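Sequence dictates fold. Below is an illustrative record:

_____
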Amino acid sequence: MTDRWARAEEHFRQREADRRYRRDEKAWADDRRRRAATKTPEPDRWANYDDDTNVIPRYTDDDDPLYDGPGRYDDEDFGAASDFDDDFDEPEQPEPPQRKPVRTATRTSARTATRATRRAKPDRPAKSPRGRRSSRAASRKAAERKKRRRSMWIIGAVLTVLLVGAAGFAIKKFAESFGPPADYAGPGGPLVVVQVHPGDTASQIADSMLEKDVVKSSSAFYQAAMRNSAMTSVQPGYYAIPSKSPAADAVTTLVGKGSRVGNLVVAEGRLLHDQHDVKTGSTTEGLYTKISAASCVGMATQQKCVSAQDLAAAAASTDLAALGVPAWAMESVRAAPDRSRQLDGLLAAGTWDFDPSGTPQQILRQLITQSAAGYEATGLLQSGAQTNLTPYQTLIAASLVEREASPGDRAKVARVILNRLAVDQPLQFDSTVNYGLDTTELATTDDDRETKTPWNTYAMSGLPANPIAAPSLDSLRAMEKPEPGDWLYFVTVDAKGTTMFTASYSEHLRNIRIAQQSGILDSGR
């Protein structure tokens, strides 16, 4: 019986070991392959188990003379039990490890044990490092979900505000569509200057009108503009419109004649100051006079203008940056010998718009800034690589071309200038003599040519101290890219503007005699 119990105990241990330390499928597969290769059969654990009974005998604790209490047996009594020795002649087996016997004495004992097992709570195993990492990861994910929910609430709140605002605006527009837009009853108030930018639509012009308080609502102006076909002819610029006007009246004033202000046309070759012709006595208005006339806003006694005197005073300022003088001209303008002429040439020929409600300094700055941008667009800043002139020197030479050449001869006159500068030969241009005179004519006297001034090229070599006129962009381009040639002399021989060019001084003298015969060089003094 002892042997049977020992084998049963060994089989129990093996089964428990297989259950607790179960090998994976790969281990079982490797074991099967190894046994197949060595042709070793699967061991039968019960092959040597000689059991002449079908069931294990049922016993109770009270009937077991060797049982001293739960989980304890008396070693001496167990070894001296004659009942076991009489039944088995095999050698004594080592004592199996102590274990708590299975109690199957009575139904009451089994039920009590079952209830005790159910009430007993297993010890909670300690968390492994992997479990702690999983816990931290779960905490992070929970925090991220909370953050996402908070962000979604914020986004939802913002979208709600936007939707409510859009709905309110739509409701307002919808309500306004059932009635006329707000409008002034009139009559209009004082004039205000409104700018129409290039590319402005009727809606954008309406917004500008509302900003200047010309109309009470942009909708009123827009509807009036849509009913006036002349709105398509409105040009970019500045317009004087009465404030607090009915929308229809504001549109009518805008498209009508006389409302545009601050529009300046600078003729080619114009000077800053007025000049008087010797023969006719007529006056050629300078740029200060032209700007003053373009700055007038209003009619009759209510008209307001910037005077030519105020403009001339502002132009003589030493604060060149406030006047808008470009960086490439700053040094030369600062060294100008006559402050009243220091801005000559910096106002380019062309059509310009300026705000007439500004100060004299602001008006000049606006015009000079626009002119400098136009000059630079021709390639002025890069032209020195071919002509060896600075940008300001190129501007001076272009003003000479403007005063001396007819439109078809600009590039040739530019070449004469460069050829003479290259050999240090005086330019001897009559236009540089006339620049310093109050009364001028095409021809000049010997006394005028001999008078030394910072601009008289008969009395000195090189270029004048500053531009002598407002050059056109065509003259500037001719100076930047002169026509190839070896000419050193030219003279206009008739009133039509015919000009003869030559590299020979003797031939030039013959051309001068032709000009004298035509009377073009006769002086009125």
Q: What stands out?
A: The two ends are 161 Å apart (CA to CA). The chain has a mean pLDDT of 82. The longest strand covers residues 191-196.
